Amino acid sequence: MEAVTLKGRKSGFELQFRAASSIEEITAQLATLLARLSADTENTGEVEFVIETGDRLLDESQAQAIQQVFAQYPHFTIGAIHADVAAIAPLKARLAAQATHLVGGVLRSGQEANYSGDVLFLGTLHQGATLRTTGSIFVMGTVEGLLIAGADGAQDAIIAGDISKAGQIRIADTIEIIDKNTYGPETTSYINDLHVLTHGQTAGLSELRPKLFRKLEEF
Amino acid sequence: MGKSLVITSGKGGVGKTTTTANIGTALALQGKRVVLMDLDIGLRNLDVVLGLSNRIIYDIVDVATGRAKIHQALIKDKRFDDKLYILPAAQNAEKDSLEPEQVKAIVEELRPEFDYLILDSPAGIEQGFRNAVEGADGAIVVTTPEISAVSDADRVVGLLEQRDMVYPPRLVINQIRQHMMADGRAMDIDEITQHLGIDLLGIILDDDGVIETSNKGETVVMDPDDPASQGYRNIARRLLGESVPLMNIEQKKVGFWHRLFHR
After folding, report:
1. How far is A170 from chain B (nearest CA, A)?
2. The domain containing residue A180 runs over which residues?
3. Which of A210, B30, B61, B210 is buried most, with the most CB atoms less than 10 Å from its CB?
């Protein structure tokens, strides 16, 4: 099995590195391949290659080794390096941002819980405590403190559930002070087209935020 | 130009915050423009006592660090027209995230707009106390008729006298239980005042109404018939320069015939 395969695509040339081959094998084969190509294409001007590494993620030293091989042929350049896989840390962060976090326990006065993504709150939020997230908040527990949804400025974030005892709610850059006995046990708060924080019934959520609903269904 | 007064005690639990809220309310009822500043960073409760905690958006640390303008952080108490405002403390900042100079700057910024600036100091004599005192022209020392509170008040008076303020510190004796004072089981008002060696500004009787109203987010001063309320109203009038005689705290003497028939 070849460690390096050259393919011609509509968009240009593609070099496929076999993930199971060692990097030494790849650089060696790449060197001979490029030497042959260079001999064949002396007068064609600049040629750009896209590198596909498959299930391998090139680390810095490996990428450098590849670039060194290319450096010998000034008219060959690397367009991009693609892999079918990604590093774990950024993926984790992306998943975390998409996930709905289950949050329980007691948040006491002065405590602050920060999340990115949606939060399903099952705990107790005391007066003077803050629950902040970049996404939406779904309240199933008791809330007497401050709820902040869309903390990074997401206008489409909502807060749904019982906010009748909450002190204050904020969505993106809007703020509402909740006075006692204003709301019933089931409210959905959102920013309307006029950029005003307003409230509706949770039943109407599917029409209000269809995107959010689709996301919820996917889980 | 407004006067700034710090309410302090050294000891905790003697009623600094309650006194701040009530004197502030009483002055507002007298038509003065008052701002109450909570300097108990991390353990704020002036806003809770006044039932305004859900209105906090910015706090004093936000103002000091430039994240908010002072007028964004001030909370108006709608019950008193345009007379009473509070500047809340931060709840989740570090205790020493405020410097005395910053407090002084805030006081100076607010001074032209208010008649009275009342600074609610935290318990203790550390950074929070120094912050509160730095911004004040005068001090009101709160104590109770208990040896521990009086002893801490004495320490605080000593510290205040070193600072050479515009007005000398004055004393409020809080949580007075008439029956204990009458039969000599609690320290006497004169005894406390003489011991501390500062002028007595007023006395407040221990009263259930104080706790009851504060649990509802109100101040006892709003109820004119309450005995503690009268104490606070008298203090406010004395601060405004009126001469108001000290409240009579002696309970009615039980007569011979009463004793004879009501064993």
Report:
1. 10
2. 91-218
3. B210
Q: Is B88 exposed, middle or buried (0-12, 13-18, 19+ CB in 10 A)?
A: buried
A110–B42: do the CB atoms touch at under 8 Å?
Answer: yes
**A39 & A112 share domain:** no
Q: What CATH code is carried by the domain that includes residue B182?
A: 3.40.50.300
Token pair in block for residue A182: 């204003």
Cα–Cα distance, B109 to A78 (Å, whole number): 62
Verify whether the Cβ–Cβ distance B54 to A130 is below 8 Å: no
Sequence-ordered list of residues with C-beta below 8 angstroms from that of A156, at least 6 positions apart, any chain:
A150, A190, A191, A209, A211, A212
CB–CB contact A167 B53 (8 Å)? yes
Averaging pLDDT over each range in A45-49, A214-218, B4-8, which range is the top one? B4-8
User: Cα–Cα distance between B157 and B145 in angstroms, integer?
Assistant: 16
Q: How many domains does chain B have?
A: 1
Question: Is residue A52 scored above 50 in pLDDT?
Answer: yes
- Classify residue B255: in a domain, yes or no: no
Shortest CB distance from A175 goes to which of B42, B57, B91?
Answer: B57
Tell me how crowded residue A48 is: count the other CB atoms within 10 A of its CB.
Answer: 13
Determine if the pTM surpasses 0.95.
no
Which stretches in chain B have pLDDT values below 70? Answer: 250-255, 263
Domain that holds residue B163: 3-248
Bridge partners of residue B34, in order along the sequence: B84, B116
Of A85, A110, A145, which residue constitutes the final position of a domain? A85
Beta-carbon separation of A109 and B91 below 8 A: yes
